[in-house]
Write a structure and sequence with these properties.
Number of strands: 7
Strand content: 15-25%
Shape: flat
Structural class: alpha/beta
Number of domains: 2
Number of helices: 2
Order of helices and strands: EHEEEEEEH
Distance between the termini: 51 Å
Radius of gyration: 21 Å
Length: 121
């Protein structure tokens, strides 16, 4: 059985290396625990994101990847969690535009079906 694991940690420029090492160690320990119980982490579906505010963007070093479940996971600008698109600045602009796009399509599709039904009767 494949398991999903969410790990969160606070980072600062002073403790970046230690925090990433601790995060990777925790991920490896959880993977070992899962494997010993007949479960495993799905590294292919793993995502990593570094949340930040605009004011701190320039002062914070870039993090190219995080090791989890014995594989490197690239740091993305946005991730999807339970259908919510979360971007690195927590603005939710991508999520709102995606919801609007889907609702417009749904409304347009409903109107088209209704017109077809009215024409047949």
């Amino acid at each position: 059985m494949l398991m999903t694991l969410e790990l969160f940690t606070a980072l600062s420029t002073a403790t970046l290396c230690n925090a990433l090492a601790q995060l990777e160690h925790c991920s490896a320990e959880m993977n070992t625990l899962f494997c010993s119980n007949g479960l495993c982490l799905n590294a292919g579906k793993s995502e990593a994101i570094l949340l930040r505010v605009h004011q701190r963007l320039c002062s914070f070093p870039s993090v190219p990847s995080v090791n989890t479940a014995s594989s490197a996971v690239g740091v993305s600008d946005q991730i999807t969690n339970l259908g919510v698109i979360i971007d690195k600045y927590l603005t939710f602009d991508c999520h709102v535009s995606e919801v609007c796009k889907k609702s417009f399509f749904s409304t347009f599709s409903s109107k088209a079906h209704m017109l077809l039904l009215l024409q047949k009767t």
